[in-house]
């Protein structure tokens, strides 16, 4: 018999079993514990993921699908089936359960279900907040690929399990972002000795990534970072962690705006526009033009086209680095002997810049839960961190050797304008944010759309207004604080230290209280201390320099 699919439902073995489960749960009194709540019964009920039926943000799971499930076109022309499978998802193969594929709710449905639907025992949150009502091992069966839904509600192709190769590329795409452009500038700010901070943060971030895995395995139903926060500190923990993650995404959109203005004005420095007595220089003009070009993509509900284009995040990063290497090693640009060993006055800025390089922990739980073989996760993390750290380190060393103390916050601004590799690097840097802006902003917008009154949930006007307002606000912030490197240092010092170093350790100690070794507690306390000190010193330094630059 064919399996039926309904919104927020699972494939189960048969309709008879479904009815049996339905009758069973109809007879249970409201408030009974679910099948997964058979351990730690004395714990605070609010600390378990199945204790709440609706906690903001309910759209986190869905929005992170949009943000991180970035499919690529088929790579059959390479003639290698494994490479074709590798290309099926560059950024988080699937945030769907390993054994039970979910169908995301349609966008015309309210993001928070009405009370009647929440009480229906055969319904389940599609965002991983509540564990399934039936045990996985008995009622779930493997569905042939031909019977599985090929696309979700947003038109994004669904990939049900990640291979080791896919997960490595996903991890690299998470870690390897615009921070790559600022690594030579970070060496300038911190000196050669400060470069060791990059490798120290890499080691600590790898360890905290492993801690997230232990947190996810501690209780059934934990699949995302906010789930971990809820398991550790209840609803407030979920909300606080979600807000931090959304602010980090919003700040990344501000960086994209600054990036567009800096690079386009470098290409066309003499561009300007006069409007009714207002004179727009090149940077302001291109920020407005870029915003007008980006705005229609923000209004899109089906982001599958952008997902296919933005799949080249790793490729774009490698291409830009290759252009830098070509300019230095082939065209012999720069290469001056530098003797700055340690630059203490500006070292805190370098701390924030190096910290920003490892801001991928928000998606690590998704990569872990999507793995076909979860025992491979340590190897996936180690490979991803190793390759990305080598890429960051090589770019930092070569870029600083080439440009020295004249290194800009983005090394693309230092490349000679007459070289072809310079044009390739700059235009690759300019085009990339056009595909990533909408994907990055969507989780923030969807979380705000949840807060709309139920009578407006079917309206298309309010989501457009919210997304337009968010985009305009990023432009205002980007024009008011047009300091790419300093803003990145602030994000890295404040938000990344929280998400990458501090919160994983705190949640780990809280969730596994009494089950950790003395060595684990000591390491976690050390990492929390390092993260807190880096956050305080780096944030103060970055804010001070931003204020000084604005005066």
TrEMBL record:
KW Transmembrane helix (keyword) present: yes
Main location: membrane
Coiled coil: none
Biased composition (Acidic residues): 28-44
Biased composition regions of type Polar residues, renumbered to the chain: 1-11
Ranges for domain Amino acid transporter transmembrane: 160-541
Keyword Zinc-finger listed: no
Membrane-spanning segments: 193-216, 237-259, 282-300, 305-327, 347-368, 380-404, 424-448, 460-481, 487-509, 521-543
Keywords tagged on the record: Amino-acid transport, Membrane, Transmembrane, Transmembrane helix, Transport
Pfam families cross-referenced by the UniProt entry: Aa_trans
Classification via InterPro entries: AA_transpt_TM
Start and end residues of each stretch annotated as Disordered: 1-55
Subcellular location: Membrane
Name of the protein described by the UniProt record: Amino acid transporter AVT1C-like
Species: Solanum pennellii
């Amino acid at each position: 018999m064919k399996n039926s699919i309904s919104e927020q439902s699972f494939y189960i073995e048969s309709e008879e079993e479904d009815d049996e489960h339905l009758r069973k749960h109809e007879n249970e009194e409201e408030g009974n514990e679910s099948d997964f709540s058979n351990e730690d019964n004395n714990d605070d009920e609010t600390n378990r993921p199945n204790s709440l039926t609706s906690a903001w943000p309910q759209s986190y799971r869905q929005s992170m699908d949009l943000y991180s499930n970035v499919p690529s076109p088929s790579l059959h022309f390479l003639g290698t089936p494994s490479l074709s499978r590798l290309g099926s998802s560059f950024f988080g193969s699937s945030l769907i359960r390993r054994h039970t594929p979910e169908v995301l709710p349609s966008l015309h449905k309210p993001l928070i279900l009405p009370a009647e639907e929440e009480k229906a025992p055969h319904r389940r949150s599609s965002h991983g907040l509540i564990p399934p009502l039936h045990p996985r091992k008995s009622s779930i069966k493997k569905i042939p690929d031909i019977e599985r839904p090929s696309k979700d509600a947003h038109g994004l192709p669904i990939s049900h399990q990640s291979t080791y190769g896919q997960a490595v590329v996903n991890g690299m795409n998470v870690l390897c972002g615009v921070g790559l452009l600022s690594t030579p500038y970070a060496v300038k700010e911190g000196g050669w000795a400060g470069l060791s901070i990059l490798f120290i943060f890499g080691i600590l971030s790898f360890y905290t990534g492993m801690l997230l895995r232990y947190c996810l395995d501690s209780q059934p139903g934990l699949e995302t970072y906010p789930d971990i926060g809820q398991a550790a500190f209840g609803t407030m923990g979920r909300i606080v962690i979600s807000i931090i993650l959304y602010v980090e995404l919003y700040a990344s959109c501000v960086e994209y705006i600054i990036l567009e203005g800096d690079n386009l004005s470098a290409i066309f420095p003499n561009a300007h526009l006069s409007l009714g007595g207002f004179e727009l220089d090149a940077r302001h003009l291109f920020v407005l033009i870029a915003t007008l070009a980006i705005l229609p993509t923000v209004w899109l509900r089906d982001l599958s086209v952008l997902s296919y284009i933005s799949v080249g995040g790793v490729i774009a990063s490698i291409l830009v680095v290759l252009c830098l290497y070509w300019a230095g090693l082939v065209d012999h640009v720069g290469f001056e002997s530098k003797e700055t060993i340690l630059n203490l006055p500006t070292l805190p800025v370098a701390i924030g810049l190096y910290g920003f390089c490892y801001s991928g922990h928000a998606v690590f739980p998704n990569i872990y839960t999507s793995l076909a073989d979860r025992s491979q996760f340590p190897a996936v993390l180690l490979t991803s961190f190793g390759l990305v750290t080598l890429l960051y380190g090589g770019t930092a060393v070569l870029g600083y050797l080439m440009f020295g103390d004249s290194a800009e916050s983005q090394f693309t601004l230092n490349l000679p304008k007459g070289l072809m590799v310079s044009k390739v690097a700059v235009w690759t840097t300019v085009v990339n944010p056009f595909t990533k802006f909408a994907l990055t902003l969507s989780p923030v917008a969807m979380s705000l759309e949840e807060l709309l009154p139920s009578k407006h949930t079917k309206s298309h006007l309010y989501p457009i207004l919210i997304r337009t307002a968010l985009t305009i606000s990023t432009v205002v912030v980007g024009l008011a604080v047009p300091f790419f490197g300093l803003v990145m240092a602030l994000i890295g010092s404040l938000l990344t230290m929280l998400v990458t170093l501090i919160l994983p350790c705190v949640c780990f100690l809280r969730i596994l209280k009494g089950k950790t070794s003395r060595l684990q507690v000591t390491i976690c306390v050390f990492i929390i201390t390092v993260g807190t000190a880096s956050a305080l010193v780096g944030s103060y330094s970055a804010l001070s320099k931003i204020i000084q630059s604005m005066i």
